[in-house]
Automatic annotation (TrEMBL):
Keyword Hydrolase: yes
Keywords: Hydrolase
Classification via Gene3D superfamilies: Ribonuclease Z/Hydroxyacylglutathione hydrolase-like
Domain Metallo-beta-lactamase, residue spans: 34-226
Annotated InterPro entries: Metallo-B-lactamas (IPR001279), RibonucZ/Hydroxyglut_hydro (IPR036866)
Entry GO MF terms: hydrolase activity
Name of this chain's protein: MBL fold metallo-hydrolase
Pfam families listed in its UniProt record: Lactamase_B_2
Source organism of the structure: Qipengyuania pelagi
Length: 255
């Protein structure tokens, strides 16, 4: 099993559109961050896309991803779902809609915003057949577990993927570590974790919280994502333990 980090940045990306790089060195390519999304792939070549960021088209082109077997959403904030229309091309070669999963309230909001995606319109076919993730334990050849994580005043879904004797956790956009999260993620080979910045934030994890999640879950390795403009790649890489990797757009990790 492996994963590909399509995007590693916060909701505004790095740099921001006003060319604000913050503490990030513009000369370091790994500091240029698009909005977060990942692809998980098993040994059979089956792929699951997690979240459809607004930068999805460029991410898929850059990584030569022209097919996925299912799409999952962590939550319905714009930086995690507003690239959904870029999935249209993946429907062209299919005889049926692309399978999609999200928790029930997220499903309802996605259908309200993007009705044509899930219902078809004006002769165009339905693009995604979405179902509640609460009812699913397998997706596209992966064992799947899901847990709700506090995300400020709302929640985000954390996912655990099992395939080929390995386990991978994707936990982005959380502001508190709960017992349910620890139970779901326990013993994972790799955790990809939210890590917005060093200072506390009301709806996101800090570097200290991400490392605490690694320890509490007794996971082997940690990759940091959802990094803002204060998190310079080289500076942060010198601060973290050896089993922690600072994520960047295009990072691929094999388990």
């Amino acid at each position: 099993m492996k994963f590909l980090m399509l995007g590693s940045g916060t909701s505004t990306g790095v740099p921001r559109i006003d060319e604000d790089w913050g503490a990030c060195d513009p000369a370091e390519p790994r500091n240029r961050r698009s909005r977060v999304s990942i692809v998980v792939e098993n040994d059979a070549g089956q792929r699951v896309l997690v979240d459809t960021s607004p930068d999805l088209r460029n991410q898929l082109l850059a990584n030569r991803i022209d097919r996925v077997d299912a799409v999952l959403w962590t939550h319905d904030h714009a930086d995690h779902c507003h690239g959904i229309d870029d999935l249209r091309v993946m429907r062209y070669s299919r005889s049926n809609a692309l399978p999609g999963l999200a928790r029930a309230p997220v499903m309802a909001n996605l259908k309200r915003r993007f009705d044509y995606i899930f219902e078809g319109q004006h002769g165009y076919p339905t693009l995604i057949d979405i179902k509640p993730v609460e009812d699913v334990r397998m997706v596209a050849g992966f064992g799947l577990a899901a847990v709700e994580m506090p995300h400020g005043p709302t929640t985000s879904t954390g996912y655990r993927f099992e395939a080929d004797g390995a386990s991978l956790v994707y936990a982005t956009d959380y502001s508190e570590i709960t017992d349910a999260m620890v139970a779901c993620f326990d013993g994972a080979d790799l955790i990809i974790s939210d890590c917005l910045r060093r200072d506390p934030h009301p709806s996101h994890a800090t570097i200290g919280m991400a490392i605490d999640l690694l320890k509490r879950c007794r996971a082997r390795k940690l990759v940091l994502t959802h990094l803002d403009k204060s998190m310079d790649y080289k500076t942060l890489s010198k601060e973290v333990p050896k089993n922690v990797t600072v994520g960047f757009d295009g990072l691929e990790v094999k388990l």
